[in-house]
């Protein structure tokens, strides 16, 4: 007998959501970040922990569980979204899944533009895979606030379970924390029951101090996740930037008791990258964060390499990369 299809996810079924707190500039105003030390810490993470054989395979499988499979192209179509959703439902070839002893595996979410949300919802019906939508004038965010809020509401009305918003970078560069807080709080309200990921576009923020401060303001305003990048900046996710954001997550949790999720995005392409960011998560926040409701990887292009590495693990040989469907 076939198992009954999984229901669509209920965003409220996660750990208690970050309710936000009033803006508290004194939490971060005098923060100091030792950039060389952050870079050294990030550089030594993967050299101090080696993952081999079945351990490496398990971590790569977990990376798939935490991946937001994404298409954000100007020529997206409903058929392309349907193909992406099919890959999200079955990210590994059947023979790899069988050799790994897994009955089923799917990605953490599928992320699309607002106009493609309805197509993704249809394609994922019964899978339990959330649909995420970028919004708020992605990727630049340089639209009037009322239009950005309207885009959020449109995506939610179309069925999005998660909304990836972009902040106004100018607020960070001008240290206008009240404006940044008010903007993100309004976006969080517009999301309603949908979880909100706040994209900080860290490559545009100039300093690691700004990265920490923007992270803290986003969480104070109620972000469920903080995310490094849109994937469209000149510099996207890096380990030093991610380290600083995780320290902000830890500090916010210590003050409030809320656990906020983290999503690195952009610039990650290989299975080795998937391992590096998970090692960072484990070292800084512990294994509790290595699950889809607290950690996502915004790097669809790495799925092909992960599948290739897992095929080598179960067969002892590498398949040509052309045999593995690109996300």
What does this protein structure show overall?
The protein is α/β, with parallel strands linked by helices and 327 residues long. The chain is 45% helix and 8% strand. It contains 12 helices and 7 strands. Strands 1-2-3-4-5-6-7 form a 7-stranded parallel sheet, covered by helices on one side. The chain is globular.
Adjacency order of strands in the biggest sheet: 1-2-3-4-5-6-7
- The count of strands amounts to 7
Structural class: alpha/beta
- H-E order: HHEHHEHEHEHHEHEHEHH
What percent of residues adopt helix (DSSP H or I)?
Answer: 40-55%
How many helices? The count is: 12
Spans where pLDDT lies below 50 across 5 or more residues: 1-13
Helix/strand layout:
Blueprint: H1 35-48, H2 53-65, E1 68-70, H3 78-89, H4 94-99, E2 109-112, H5 117-123, E3 131-134, H6 145-158, E4 162-166, H7 169-173, H8 177-191, E5 195-199, H9 208-220, E6 225-227, H10 239-256, E7 261-263, H11 271-285, H12 302-315
Parallel strand pairs: 1-2, 2-3, 3-4, 4-5, 5-6, 6-7
């Amino acid at each position: 007998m076939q198992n009954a299809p999984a229901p669509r996810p209920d965003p409220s079924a996660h750990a208690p959501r970050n309710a936000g707190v009033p803006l508290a500039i004194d939490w971060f105003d005098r923060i100091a970040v030792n950039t060389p030390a952050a870079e050294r810490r990030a550089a030594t993470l993967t050299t101090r922990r080696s993952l081999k054989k079945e351990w490496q395979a398990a971590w790569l499988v977990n990376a798939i569980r935490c991946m937001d499979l994404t298409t954000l192209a100007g020529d997206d179509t409903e058929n392309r979204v349907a193909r992406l959703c099919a890959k999200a439902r079955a990210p590994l070839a059947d023979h790899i899944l069988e050799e790994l002893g897994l009955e089923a595996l799917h990605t953490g979410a599928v992320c699309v533009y607002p106009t493609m949300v309805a197509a993704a919802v249809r394609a994922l019906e019964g899978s339990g895979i959330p649909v995420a939508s970028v919004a708020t004038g992605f990727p630049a965010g340089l639209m009037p606030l009322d239009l950005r809020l309207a885009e959020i509401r449109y995506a939610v009305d179309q069925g999005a379970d998660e909304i990836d918003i972009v902040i106004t970078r100018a607020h960070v560069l001008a240290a206008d924390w009240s404006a940044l807080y008010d903007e993100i709080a309004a976006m969080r309200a517009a999301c309603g029951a949908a979880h909100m990921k706040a994209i900080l576009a860290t490559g545009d923020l100039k300093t690691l101090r700004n990265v920490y401060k923007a992270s803290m303001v986003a969480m104070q305003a109620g972000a469920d996740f903080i995310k490094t990048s849109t994937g469209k900046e000149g510099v996207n996710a890096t380990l030093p930037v991610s380290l600083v954001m995780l320290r902000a997550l830890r500090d916010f949790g210590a003050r409030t008791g809320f656990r906020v999720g983290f999503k690195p995005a952009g610039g990650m392409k290989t299975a080795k990258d998937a391992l590096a960011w998970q090692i960072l998560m484990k070292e800084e926040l512990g294994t509790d964060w290595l699950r889809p409701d607290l950690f996502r990887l915004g790097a669809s292009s790495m799925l092909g390499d992960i599948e290739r590495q897992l095929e080598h693990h179960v067969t002892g040989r590498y398949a040509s990369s052309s045999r593995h469907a690109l996300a």
